[in-house]
Amino acid sequence: MGAPTIRQIYALAAALCERAGEEFPATREDASATIERLRLENGHPAPRLEDTVRRARRRRRGPESRVAERLVDEMD
């Protein structure tokens, strides 16, 4: 079995919102605000999202790119 599908995750989130008496967020901004509020209410130890540095997305590289990178490393 694989990881849950996006539909399953949304269904789970909606059910948990309903159980907790929370309104399911309509926008990304609403979702972020709700997540942040719930994290703080729960005493989550991680830093707030706006206090963290965004990591750059890593590009997926094919096997050819990895071979080329190794070759460049060996030439140095």
Topology:
Blueprint: H1 6-20, H2 28-41, H3 63-75
Q: Can I get a quick summary?
A:
The chain has 76 residues and is an all-alpha fold. Helix content is 55%, strand content 0%.
What is the first-to-last residue Cα distance? 44 Å
How much β-strand is present in the residues? under 5%
Shape call: elongated
Order of helices and strands: HHH
Largest beta-sheet details: none
Task: Please identify the structural class as seen in this structure.
Answer: mainly alpha
Q: Could you give the count of β-strands?
A: 0
Could you please describe the fold and organization of this structure?
0% of the residues are buried. The chain is built from three helices and no strands. Helices cover 55% and strands 0% of the residues. The model has no long low-confidence stretch (mean pLDDT 82). It has 76 residues and is mostly helical. The protein has helices spanning 6-20, 28-41, 63-75. The radius of gyration is 20 Å and the shape is elongated.
